[in-house]
Amino acid sequence: MTTATTTSRQTSTDPLALIDVDHVRFYVGNAKQAAYFYAHTFGFHISQVADLTTGSRDEADYLLTQGNIRLMLTTPLDSDHPAAEEIKLYGDGVKDIAFTVFDAESAYDLAIKNGGVSAAEPRTLTDERGSVTVASIKTYGRVVHSFVSRTGAYALPDIKNGAEFMPVFKKMTSPVNDYYAANPCGLKYIDHCVGNVEEGKMNHWVQWYEDVMGFKMFKHFDDADISTEYSALMSKVMASGNNLIKMPINEPAEGKKKSQIQEYLEWHNMTPGCQHLAMRTDDELGSVAELRRRGVDFLNLPDSYYEQVWDRVNKTLVAHGHEPVKEDHEKIKDLGVLVDADDEGYLLQLFTKPLQDRPTLFFEIISRHGSQSFGKGNFKALFEALEIEQDRRGNL
Ligand code: FE2
Q: What is the CATH number of domain 187-392?
């Protein structure tokens, strides 16, 4: 592995310096209904809409917000819209992981110069309030990265305070938003975003993120031992220069049973895509308790998990001079939360079952207490849990 980039990517002189995850766009079969699913189960606020009533003639878009997370649910209004074909091929899922940059056109130009392939040339939407410029490049499979730059009332700090997302959007008022405000789920931002690619293509996409986006390999505790007989996947983590976003890339590997990555690909028209989005919370137990109360369907772990986990995790923490896990161990078990530790500390995490009928996209709820890795120590327990689910779906 060569490291292509040695320069700092944190200044505005670098066109590919990423300011934030602008939004994550899903293509869905029915955005109006999906908005209520994500709002009710995960506590998102249905903030804004662009549809026929606001002058959007070919698609409807719902902006869902929580903390610094912005999900855009897009549904096509006619069969010629590209989303219509994608929904036919892949079902609902992630289309675009979009980044806010200082100048979308410069970011796009540099990414193309670096070897990226265009998905959409720069276009600017302007009205009397300001402007939004968007340009997109293709990444793995059906996913694109858009670069978004904003001026005037559409600047990112204003968006975070609830300003209109871009021209044609209007604010929504809904009783579900009042419920959200009274019963917060505590999700703050997107911690990482995982892609599943074809067998043998992981290193290709690792190189692509280095060359085209200026990302670097993220060094973490899991590196030395990423593949086990249980994992049936290979994974490398790429990170933007400022570690704003981490993008693990998985490929299927030989295991005892069919790889979960292979299952994803088979139900995704053999096309790479986003496997999961991990949402960060400061209070894992509070968030998971509220999400469970709302009916989120989480993966169930084998009972034996909690017979071994404290020994493993607290031993690792003590060996590296850290305090043991401070959260109530019984409560962690009651909520079915997973725990892992490394040289820097520990993390708590939990994975949902697939969010749609196809076994493709799911969410992870994660909190970090020093640890910057991804829960490698949970792979064995997780794969056993996943195999039970795969078996139930007849896909093992
Ligand atoms: Fe994850």
A: 3.10.180.10
